[in-house]
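REQUEST FORM: STRUCTURE PREDICTION
Request ID: SP-0412
Submitted by: Lab K.M.
Chain count: 1
Length (residues): 182
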Amino acid sequence: MAKDLSLQTGIDNSDANYLNGKIVDNQTLIGEGINQDIVQFFQKLMHDSLLVVNDDFDNENNGYQFISALRLYIDKRIQVKKGYSKFLDIGNWNMNSSGTGITSISVPHGLSDHEKIRNISVIIRNDAGTKVYPLAMEDGVGISEINATNVDLTASTGKYFDTANFSATSYNRGFVKIDYVA
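STATUS: Completed
RESULT:
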């Protein structure tokens, strides 16, 4: 059905308001089948978009009401979920295991549905507060679990954060950023 209108018999190509030519009454030869399909498609589009038909021709001068109807039709059927971000303090966390194995902390995320979480990133601060480090799950260090109430963070013996530079508990160890949908 994708035919170039400008190549059809009886099309007026002289009006610049009609990009591929203008259908002319009693002159343009297009069969009833194609006409019915086209007309019914656009009637249904207008009906479902709830636009009031302006009874003008769609063109550069009058505007394209069918394009507006199509945009409304699509917007009503595609539910775009809005994305949100939430920033949390980790709180006091001594990451230096002192040879005891794994240290961990649970950070309450406060979301009613943890399955709406799309991404989590964590920044760790050293004790001096002079540097920050991304916390990525590698060799037992990182985000170990996301459950209905918490984001669980883990650090292991002998890994990067298992030093005296990450042992203070007198201030916030870092930050958790949660990206989620509504």
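NOTES: The chain has two helices and nine strands.
Reviewed by: T.R.
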